[in-house]
Structures are given as C-alpha cells and as structure tokens.
Design goal:
Helices cover 43% and strands 13% of the residues. With 572 residues, the protein is an alpha+beta fold. A hairpin with a 3-residue loop joins strand 4 and strand 5.
Length: 572
C-alpha cells in the first residue's frame, strides 16, 4: 500500500447543500471539518506507508473517522456505517452523497499501522499544536493531573484457568503453524478432548482436591509440550511462536518441578509462602494480553488491566465554580494537554516525571501543577521547582507509629543539626550514629541513638517500641528534608487548602472521558494499542470541548440542576 499525500478532499457542492439544509445549526462533525480540517492531513503519516503499491485510503481521513468514532463511542462497524449514511460525516470526510464508504476492517488495519510505527499520539499532538497556535492553551499556566483504572479487554482468569488456557492457546497456535509436527509430538485426540473448548466454557470442579488434580494435569501437559518444542529434533522456529513462549512463562510462574524421594518427577502448583510467586508487575494474567496486570487500590478496587493519567489545563475555572455549566464558555476551554497510559502496577509517583517531561517537550510546562498525594516525592518537588513548575500537591505526612498515635514523638519533635551531623531528642539526648545509606535507590540518612540513653529514658514507650531498645530515624538529605518540611507546613494553611480545591475539577474530566469514550474499558489488547485508544479518547474529548467553546454551549447543562448553579453563584 502506498501513500500519496492529499489530505481531506474538498467537500462536494451537493454534499455542502444537503448538509447545510439538514443541519442549519451545524453539528460536531461539520464544525470539526470547517475549523480543524488542517489538523487531519496525510504528511505526518508518510513514514508509515510505502511509495509503491496501490494507493490506500487517506490516513488523514481515517484519523478523522477515528476521532469522530471515539467522540460518539462507536464500534468499527458503526463508524464505517456512519461514513455511508450520516450526511454530516460525509461532509466532514469530503465524500459524495453516493459514496459507498469503506469496509470496517480498514480501521483496525489503520490502527495497527499507527502502533507499528509509533504514531499513536500523532493526531493528539497535532490538535494540541493547533490549540497552541490559536492561543487556546499556553505554557506557564495551571494544569492538573489524575489517574484512573482501565479494565482490560480480556476475561479475568484465576491461576487454574490461566494455566489451562495458556496450554490451549499454545496448542491452537501450533495446530495452525505446524499441524504435522504436533500430531507426532502429542496425543491429539486426548489433548483435543481436554483443550478443545475454552476453559471458561465449562464449570471447574467444586472440590479443592479435584481442582488440585486438574491443576497438576495442566502443569504436566505444559511441561510435556515445552519439552517437545525445545527438543533437539523440533524446528527451532516453533520456540518463537508467541503463544508457546507465553505458555512457558506461565509454567515457570505457576508450577515447580521436583524429584520425589522415589525418583519420580512431580509437577505441583507454586505456593506463595513456600515456593514464592513472581511480583505483580511481572506476573502474567492472560495468554491473550501479556501487558495486562492485576492491581488494587484501597480495599474496594481490584482490577485487571492498565492505568491512564489525564492532564488538563485549568487556568479559567475558579474552584468555587468548577461544576457550574457556564465555566467552560468563559475565556479559554480546559483542554487535555497530556495522556499517559501505564501498566496497572506502576504507582502514580513513577508517572510524574514522564508527564512533566512530555509537557515540557510540547512547550507546555505549567507554572503550577495540581496533583493528588500519590504523585509527589521530595526529589520530584525539588526538580520541578528548578524547572519553573510548582507542584501544588499534598505531601504524605509522617506515617510512623508515633505520628499516627498523636501521642508519641515523631520526627518533628527532634532537632537536627545538619552541620554537626547530630540529632537531639526531646529529652535532650544526642544521637550517636549518623549513617548515609541508599534505600530504594535513594540517598537517605539513618540516625541512631544510644541504647543506654533510650533504655533509661522515662518516656521511652512514647518514643519507640523497637525490640533493639533504641530509637532510630530515617531522614532525607538536608535539601530534600527542608523541601518536605516546608510543603507539610504549607499544606496545613487555609490559603493552601483553598488553592488546592482547583485540583478537584480533573475528576469531572475523567467522568466525561468515561461517559463519552468509555475510557475505563480497554477496546484493544496490549499496552501499545491501549495507548492509542487513550490518545484518540483524549483527542475526542478536546474536540468535544472545542465544539462547546465555539458554540458557547455548556458541556454539562443537562447534568447540573438550577439549584446547584444558584448555590455556586451565591458561594462566588
């Protein structure tokens, strides 16, 4: 397939007349074509297409179809049908009224080409460039970030189901890639009886004994198949089949192979306490999506999938009017400036630096960055400040037992002499040890008090309950300790709390993305394709918000009561 850069074709005159008559007030698709047509060009996609072969559909047109598809939360078949029957879509795409459109299978192939060439964010970045040039978003303002969970597009499997389904997936792949070899390597009728239907199509045994027996059978079959594939007489390319390698990984992560006292080989399921299991960020959860991971947040949320971080501008929304409908039409609209998708096991604090770097690369570093308590660390606060960004975020308070009890002596009760490298406790005793160390890839200082001083101290129960009998403190280096102390002191003030109220508005953005694009459920499998989904979701949200800005129509009028608006006006 070749590409001849043309961009969106001109809108035929007949299509213009019919569309204007059918939509005298316009529609989202019509206004996107009229105002944002220059965003959807072919040139940025040139590297993904060859120069020989039959010319394919315009990638600029397909990217516009994809944005409209996400803006209306449509499937591929529905989006292809809209290009045939919807007059405003024909106007947006520059098609004749009699144009028969394209087959829905074009859209997944287009997405695969974008993912294969690292172009997941091309359309999002181009729309953001347009907004910067139009003065709708700029560097140096206020931006806010929050994350939400994303459920994967595959079925949840327990460890037993995962073991069986991984063997089934490998057998399915081998039966297509090397049917003759498979017929010689295993008893096909026996395996077909056991692995023909999907694991979730029949009920697993109810008793623990029978489930353990079935688990052992799955492990033995996986081991037998792995040994056959890795035998010297087997074709080497069989080991490169993705499903086979996944089966091998599941076998290693789920089972142990031992030799009994009688010399018999025993395959048994791993027990976390005895044999150990892989950490969550490495543990496979499905043979069909090797990037999806199990994760938890608090005691109520437990999901298999990913995590997405949305960052938006918020210069024009006063905290007290955040949910007021008219907030979106005053001044510039709040636009999504960054979207970052990670594995579900990646903590928010690990996403802070990449998000701020991506904003800087686009020329949109904020002067104030509003985040929740999961994003900051002393190092990140200091680094951001050195680059001109103030992180407005609650720093986690001292979580020691003394601080939680509100009755003991926490770190703030100790006086630190950084020059003398000594710490004085509330009872006047001086530390005897000052040890610079590395903890979790960070510099730290461990301070130790003498056992003789602590054991004889009258307030020892309020200071330490350690078996070793003496108090120890872990401190950041001086400059980071000062940053944390200042942040913790500031966040207790009313001024800071009133200012931080601005962050709450990003929750509405996540809800809007959920309502419009279904952002909390992955449409596709694999992290690269989920990243593409979220990039187009963010683009669609920006298009919807721009349309609300152009038409001066509040985004949430139907969801905000008159009483609520009155309450905000009185508060303001």
């Amino acid at each position: 397939m070749s590409l001849r850069p043309m961009g969106l074709p001109p809108v035929p005159e007949q299509t213009v007349r019919v569309a204007r008559a059918a939509f005298p007030q316009g529609s989202l698709a019509i206004r996107v074509r009229d105002r944002l047509g220059e965003v959807f060009t072919d040139e940025p996609f040139a590297e993904a297409f060859g120069v020989r072969g039959a010319p394919g559909l315009s990638p600029g047109m397909l990217s516009l179809v994809t944005v409209l598809q996400f803006a209306e939360n449509l499937t591929d078949r529905q989006a292809a049908a809209m290009a045939i029957r919807a007059i405003d879509w024909k106007y947006a795409l520059g098609l004749e009224l009699t144009d028969t459109g394209f087959d829905h299978s074009v859209l997944p192939r287009f997405r695969a080409r974008l993912v294969g060439n690292g172009m997941e964010r091309v359309v999002f970045d181009r729309l953001l460039e347009y907004c910067v040039d139009a003065g709708l978003v700029a560097a140096g303002g206020k931006q806010r970030t929050d994350s939400t969970h994303v459920v994967s597009a595959v079925r949840d499997l327990n460890r037993l189901e995962l073991a069986g389904e991984s063997v089934r997936a490998a057998l399915e792949a081998l039966s297509v890639a090397a049917p003759d070899w498979l017929a010689r390597a295993v008893d096909v009728p026996e395996f077909a009886h056991r692995y023909g239907p999907r694991v979730d199509s029949w009920k697993l045994p109810g008793s623990k004994v029978k489930r353990d027996q079935l688990s052992q059978v799955y492990g033995q079959d996986a081991l037998r198949l792995c040994r056959a594939v890795w035998s010297p007489d087997a074709p080497a390319w069989l080991r490169e089949i993705g499903a086979v390698d996944i089966m091998r990984q599941v076998l290693v992560q789920t089972y142990t192979v031992r030799t009994s006292s009688r010399g018999k080989e025993v395959v048994s399921k791993r027990e976390a306490d005895e044999d150990g299991v892989p950490p969550g960020h490495l543990r496979l959860a499905s043979p069909y999506d090797t990037d999806a991971r199990w994760s938890a947040k608090g005691d109520d949320l437990f999901w298999l999938g990913y995590k997405v971080h949305l960052t938006e501008s918020c210069d024009n929304t006063p905290p007290e009017a955040e949910a007021e409908a008219e907030a979106e039409v005053r001044g510039r609209p709040n636009l999504i400036t960054d979207v970052t998708t990670t594995l579900s096991t990646v903590p928010d604090v690990k996403a802070t630096a990449p998000i701020q770097q991506q904003l800087a690369d686009r020329g949109l570093p904020p002067a104030e960055h509003y985040l929740d308590s999961g994003y900051p660390s002393a190092e990140l606060i200091e680094t951001a400040r050195s680059r001109g960004t103030v992180m407005v975020t609650p720093v986690l308070l001292d979580r020691s037992a003394q601080a939680k009890s509100h009755a003991g002596y926490d770190k703030s009760a100790f006086r630190i002499d950084w020059k003398a490298r000594r710490v004085r406790c509330p009872q006047g005793n001086t530390s005897t040890g000052w040890h610079p160390v590395r903890q979790r890839e960070r510099d730290a200082i461990v301070v130790e008090f003498a056992k003789t001083d602590c054991q004889a101290c009258p307030v020892r129960p309020e200071c330490t309950s350690a078996r070793r009998g003496n108090r120890m403190l872990t401190l950041y280096p001086e400059h980071l300790h000062t940053v944390l102390a200042a942040a913790r002191a500031e966040q207790k003030t009313k001024t800071w709390k009133d200012k931080y109220a601005l962050r709450a508005g990003v929750e509405g953005t996540i809800n809007q993305a959920l309502d419009i694009t279904g952002i909390r459920r992955a449409r596709y499998r694999g992290l690269p394709k989920v990243r593409l989904q979220h990039a187009f979701s963010a683009t669609a949200i920006n298009v919807v918000r721009l349309d609300a800005h152009w038409t001066e129509h509040p985004l949430d009028r139907s969801r905000t009561s008159n009483l609520t608006r009155l309450s905000y006006r009185l508060t303001a």
